[in-house]
Amino acid sequence: MENCNIHAVGASAGRTQGASLHLRGITAVFFSPCSGTAGRVGLLCSALAQRLGLPVRRVDYTLPAARVQLPPFGPYELVVWGSPVYAGRLPNKLKDYVEASLRGEGSPFVGLVTFGNRSHGDALSELVGLARRGGLRPIGAAALAMPHVFSALIAAGRPTAADDEGLLRFADAVAEAVVGGVGCLPPFGNESPDAYYTPLRVDGSPARFLKATPQADVRLCTRCGLCATVCPMGSVSMEGLPRFGGVCIKCQACISACRRGALSFADGDFRSHVAMLEQTFTCPAPNVFYTLQ
């Protein structure tokens, strides 16, 4: 199989045997500013629903209004959680919500992260670690390479048919673990990371664009306000032209949504970092899967 690393690991003992046979549904939870993570979680959950004969409940926590309440998980549902990778970790500004939400009573859990062809870093192990500490039972984990939201030149054409096939094989392994009803993934990687990847410029020096925000081209912007409706941080307001205040996590949701191509980052360090990525990370990165033996 192309672009695929599969790690079959032994199941740790001492978990509730047979509980999974009584599952009532699948809960798909995801943060997906540019829709890529939602698509991968959707394909996985559709395949699991078909294999297990279970309904799927979707919890999209991308927008601020969706994070007012935490999603409840009962002991009789399979939880599939998806997130993009930012600087080798889960998105920093969403970490508290994710940690508070990942609470369960032994519910089986599948973690999925998407990354822009550079590296998934510690994000996948971080997500699984949060779920484990919250009382969920990890039975599968996946890191999936996707086009980078910073540049259409990075991982263009992903996901491929081979990527889809790999994800469906992963669904087979997860379904087998659910039916087996016993075991969980042992710890892997760094489940409690404390450092983030440092973005680099073309010359290898640190790229500092933490406070950079998109700029609106007055010649192209129609003042439609769509960018304000899609910002996951609620940081865009309309004052004639869009005004970018508050936190910007560089998710590119506003840029992706703009029908006129009126938004872009002009910051020099940001542009240099994108150029570095385009020069360095053109070879297709492999998908990585962790499954029970």
The major sheet is characterized as: 7 strands, mixed
Fold-level CATH name of the largest domain: Rossmann fold
**Segments where pLDDT lies below 50 for 5+ residues?**
13-20
Looking at how many chains there are and whether they match, the oligomeric state comes to single chain
Q: List SSEs in N-to-C order.
A: EEHEEHEHEHEHEEHEHE
Q: What do we call the CATH homologous superfamily of the largest domain?
A: Flavodoxin domain
Helix and strand arrangement:
Elements lengths: L3 E6 L15 E6 L5 H17 L3 E5 L16 E8 L10 H7 L6 E8 L7 H11 L3 E9 L15 H20 L34 E2 L9 H5 L5 E4 L1 E4 L8 H5 L5 E2 L3 H13 L6 E6 L1
Parallel strand pairs: 1-11, 2-3, 2-4, 4-5, 5-6
Antiparallel strand pairs: 6-11, 7-10, 8-9
Summarize it.
With 293 residues, this protein is an alpha/beta fold. It has 7 helices and 11 strands. The protein has a 7-stranded mixed β-sheet, with helices on both faces.
Report on this model:
By secondary structure, the chain is an alpha/beta fold. It is 27% helix and 20% strand. It folds into 2 domains: 4-195 and 282-292, Rossmann fold (3-Layer(aba) Sandwich), CATH 3.40.50.360; 215-266, Alpha-Beta Plaits (2-Layer Sandwich). It has helices spanning 36-52, 95-101, 123-133, 161-180, 226-230, 253-257, 268-280, and strands at residues 4-9, 25-30, 56-60, 77-84, 108-115, 137-145, 215-216, 236-239, 241-244, 263-264, 287-292. Strand 5 (108-115), helix 3 and strand 6 form a beta-alpha-beta unit. Helix 1 packs across helix 4. The model is unreliable at 13-20 (pLDDT under 50).
